[in-house]
Amino acid sequence: MHHGPVTPEIAKGLLALKKRIRAAKIPSSKLDESINVAIWNIREFGKKSRTDAAIHYIAEILGQFDLIALVELRDDLTDLERALRYLGPSWDVVYSDWIDDDGGNAERTGFLYDKRAVTFNGLAAEVDAPREKQATEYLAKQSFWRAPYLCSFRAGNFDFLALATHTRWGDSAKGRQAELQMLADWIKKRTDAKALEDTDLIVMGDFNIPKIGDKLFNALTSCGLMIPEVLRELKAGDQVVGGSNLGKDARYDQILHLPTHEKRFSNGGGVMDFLGEGDALLKVLFPGANYTREQSTYQLSDHFPVWVQIKTDIEGDRLTQIVQNSKK
Predict the structure, then answer these.
(1) Is-contact 18 279, C-beta < 8 A?
(2) Fewest C-beta in 10 Å: which of 12, 254, 273, 321?
(3) Is-above-0.85 flag for pTM?
(4) Torsion angle, CA of 41/48/170/222, rounded to 10 degrees?
């Protein structure tokens, strides 16, 4: 981390935040052996300039992981660039374009990654809704309000695809369910294709799913996506919580995978609660600001990062498969 010269107030805030980070019990990743992957909805990141203190704190949280899917990243990337300066020169980002209408909400989706642990492999594409020919045009019957974003990465000798998205909100659960089903169907069709770049797929996002097992969750997982076992019961450190939102009662943010690499996950995973109980920490992070918890979400976020550790040393598995294939 490269926080540089900071005020005594920000230094005190960073020290307090580091205590919250330690409480999350995020294990260190090991080069060529494991990476820590996270999804974080940083509330309206870029819509309105955050304070210097907030950017330092956001960078400190991001720096706990090796690859982070970012949603609610807005069209203005100035605050992201500020955070990148504190993360340091080993960090990079790849991100989507934005849509100006109310459905698009001027949001991008991005992948932020530490180049010492993760390499971008070259594929970066927005997911298009299925189209049908109508007269001379190819048109979609329904749409993604914000197109899911697919990128290819490598960590150690593990090549994988990462897909991230922010599913529509609004009053219509039926519309949300249809969008989640469309994404599940697209994943099924694409992963069955012979030209697929890689079969190892990690799907991350804010899916606006209140709880595991409801109609929305079942639509998303209808074509084979699974929750890593370590994330089925969500924990913030040692505490079991009901969700990754500020109230810890909704499972909006998820990391999912196809069963092709179930053994890739370690026993490390959970949610990183950077605030703790009550509002005492806010007075340390933002002295004199008198933020309510709700007001502080526009400086930090109303979502906590959800993370999981992935084992990336697959050489033993590859060699075992060669031996098994030779016996057939």
Answers:
(1) no
(2) 321
(3) yes
(4) -20
Q: How far apart are CA 248 and CA 130, in angstroms?
A: 35
- Taking only the tens place, the pLDDT of each residue in 165-219 is 999 987 778 899 999 999 999 999 998 888 877 778 999 999 999 999 999 999 9
Residue 112 has which token pair? Answer: 């932020």
Q: Name the residue with tokens 């004199």.
A: 288
- Beta bridge partner(s), residue 253: 206
Residue 246's H or E segment, with its range, is none
CB 257 within 8 A of CB 231: no
Please determine, for residue 322, whether its predicted confidence score (pLDDT) is greater than 60.
Answer: no
Q: Where does the chain show beta strands of DSSP type E?
A: 34-45, 67-74, 91-95, 107-114, 119-126, 131-134, 137-140, 149-155, 158-166, 201-206, 235-236, 239-240, 253-257, 265-271, 306-311
What the block records as the tokens of 194 is 């012979």
Smallest CA-to-CA distance from 76 within 44, 47, 42, 50 is with 47
Q: Which two tokens stand for residue 278?
A: 């009550």
| pLDDT at 278 (0 to 100) | 83
- Which pLDDT does position 328 carry in this prediction? 59
- Radius of gyration (C-alpha) of the chain in whole angstroms: 20
**Cα torsion for 121, 127, 131, 136, to the nearest 10°?**
-70
Model pLDDT for residues 112-164, shown as the tens digit of each residue = 999 999 999 999 999 999 999 999 999 999 899 999 999 999 998 899 999 99
Taking the alpha carbons at both ends of the chain, their separation in whole angstroms is 51
Tell me which residue of 299, 318, 240 sits closest to 273, measured CA to CA: 240
**12/18 Cα distance (integer angstroms):** 10
Domains assigned to the chain: 8-326 (3.60.10.10)
Both tokens of 175, joined, read 């519309």
Q: Establish how many alpha carbons lie within 13 A of residue 181's alpha carbon, considering only the half-sphere containing its beta carbon.
A: 11
- Gap between the Cα atoms of 129 and 117, Å rounded: 33
Q: What's the Cα-to-Cα distance from 45 to each of 149, 288, 301, rounded to whole Å?
A: 17, 23, 9
